[in-house]
């Protein structure tokens, strides 16, 4: 499809370009705020048992994580739009304030309900920090230079996945779980001050009209999708009233949202973006890779703990291999784009590698050597790495400049939704596999979803060996589906159009340029 070529944003065209030292400081600060937001979800995982022992509310424990994920998914596109309308600086600073406010609520919470409310507030700030930070890169760097910076920022996600739980565990053991929320305050305040001094403020006084109806319907739509993915088939059955209500609400919200966006003067998520081929292709890849990535992260520790008798901390450390591949290839892809000005081949090759990695995971079982599993996970990480930075760069170079924030937000939004849906789908597949392969071997266990390593260890040796093999058989379809999803992502990536990133430049003060669209 064709769309009208974008016109340069007059505000950005007049924005003074930072010198090299200021530019470096801006990028370091942006990376720090991104790390602050991305660790917001992972740092709490190792503290959940201690939190439950202090506050009670075991039935609500999953909502400590789900509330953050839900809020960050919902808040990201709205924050991206606000950044387009009023400037990145003010939105980033407000997001830091919201994130720290949420952390304060969590840190002083005296019950689980208040903690969950604080996590929702923290998630709203975190989602805004992630997308607006990445949009800042496009404001201060020309297209050719963005690849390396986006590659570096994308690697922050992988790094936080590993470091977040370790920091959380350390704080819980040495101080208390409250400090996993307070530790962010010095970093957040410092980032706020540096951004205030280095990032230019928007000078235009053009009046804007926020799309409140579209924003509300988008929030309802995204919330319904994430809640269905997290609740259906686990907390509630698919035929339960809450799930059926959400399933009816989703198509109604879609219809209402499309109708509202067609009438809005400044739509929160312009429908014209969906006519741009690179927007379609990149976000399709983001969605599909998100399914595969989060599904692998969710179920590999379970295999290691139950089948291979690896303790919880070590099972998490096995994922370091996956994140090492992700971080390394994010750096490589950024430098490749800067050196060559090309990016189309990267997601096609990497998703093919991802497909191979997922197929290798289908071969693991009780007899698989432990050293081989990190090798397979490294291959999976290598397959994921380039897609994150390439997806953002390909979107930023294809959309009109005035939609840069919401376009960048869409990459994170589709990846998170893909992760939520993928985890739900893979969970349903695993549950069916347990019912088919494991339950006949353990007729005394009424709730097969509550299977633990202690229950397996209590079995006689012969039955235990059969159950471990059955659990492996139940997990294998997850990785078969993951490989299929990766193959579809590979096909989707071939639709990307190689738009020029411009000549390589080492100017310390690049002039903002209009970006082409199809």
UniProtKB/TrEMBL annotation:
PROSITE patterns for the chain: MFS
Locations listed in the record: Cell membrane
Main location: membrane
One Pfam family here: MFS_1
Protein name per the record: EmrB/QacA family drug resistance transporter
InterPro entries according to UniProt: EmrB-like, MFS, MFS_dom, MFS_trans_sf
Keywords, comma-separated and alphabetical: Cell membrane, Membrane, Transmembrane, Transmembrane helix, Transport
């Amino acid at each position: 499809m064709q769309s009208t070529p974008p016109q340069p944003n007059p505000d950005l065209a007049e924005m003074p370009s930072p010198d090299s030292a200021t530019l470096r400081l801006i990028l370091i600060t942006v990376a720090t705020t991104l790390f602050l937001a991305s660790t917001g979800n992972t740092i709490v995982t190792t503290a959940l048992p201690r939190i439950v022992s202090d506050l009670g509310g075991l039935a609500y424990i999953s909502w400590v994580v789900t509330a953050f994920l839900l809020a960050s998914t919902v808040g990201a596109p709205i924050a991206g739009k606000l950044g387009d309308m009023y400037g990145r600086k003010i939105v980033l600073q407000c997001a830091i304030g919201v994130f720290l406010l949420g952390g304060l609520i969590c840190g002083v919470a005296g019950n689980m309900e208040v903690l969950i409310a604080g996590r929702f507030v923290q998630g709203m700030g975190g989602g805004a920090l992630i997308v607006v930070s990445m949009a800042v890169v496009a404001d201060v760097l020309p297209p050719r230079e963005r690849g390396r910076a986006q590659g570096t920022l994308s690697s922050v996600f992988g790094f936080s996945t590993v470091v977040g739980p370790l920091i959380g565990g350390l704080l819980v053991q040495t101080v208390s779980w409250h400090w996993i929320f307070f530790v962010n305050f010095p970093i957040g305040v410092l980032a706020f001050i540096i951004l205030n001094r280095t990032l230019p403020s928007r000078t235009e006084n053009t009046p804007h009209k926020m799309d409140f109806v579209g924003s509300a319907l988008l929030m309802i739509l995204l919330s319904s999708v994430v809640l269905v993915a997290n609740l259906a088939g686990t907390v509630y059955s698919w035929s339960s009233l809450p799930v059926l209500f959400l399933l009816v609400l989703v198509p109604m919200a879609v219809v209402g949202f499309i109708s509202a966006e067609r009438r809005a003067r400044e739509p929160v998520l312009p429908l014209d973006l969906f006519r741009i081929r690179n927007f379609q292709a990149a976000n399709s890849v983001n969605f599909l890779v998100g399914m595969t990535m989060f599904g692998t992260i969710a179920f590999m520790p379970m295999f290691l703990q139950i089948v291979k008798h690896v303790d919880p901390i070590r099972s998490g450390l096995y994922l370091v291999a996956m994140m090492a591949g992700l971080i390394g290839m994010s750096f490589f892809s950024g430098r490749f784009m800067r050196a060559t000005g090309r990016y189309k081949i990267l997601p096609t090759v990497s998703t093919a590698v991802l497909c191979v990695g997922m197929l290798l995971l289908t071969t693991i079982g009780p007899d698989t050597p432990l050293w081989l599993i990190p090798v397979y996970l490294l291959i999976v990480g290598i397959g994921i790495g380039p897609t994150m930075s390439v997806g953002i760069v390909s979107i930023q170079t294809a959309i009109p400049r005035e939609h840069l924030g919401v376009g960048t937000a869409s990459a994170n939004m589709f990846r998170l939704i893909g992760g939520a849906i993928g985890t739900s789908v893979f969970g349903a597949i695993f549950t069916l596999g347990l019912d088919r392969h494991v339950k006949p071997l353990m007729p005394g266990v009424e709730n097969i979803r509550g299977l633990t390593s202690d229950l397996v260890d209590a079995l006689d040796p012969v039955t235990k060996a059969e159950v471990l093999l059955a659990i492996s058989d139940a997990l294998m379809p997850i990785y078969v589906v993951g490989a299929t999803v990766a193959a579809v992502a590979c096909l989707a990536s071939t639709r990307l159009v190689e738009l020029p990133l411009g000549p390589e430049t080492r100017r310390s003060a690049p002039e903002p340029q209009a970006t082409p669209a199809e």
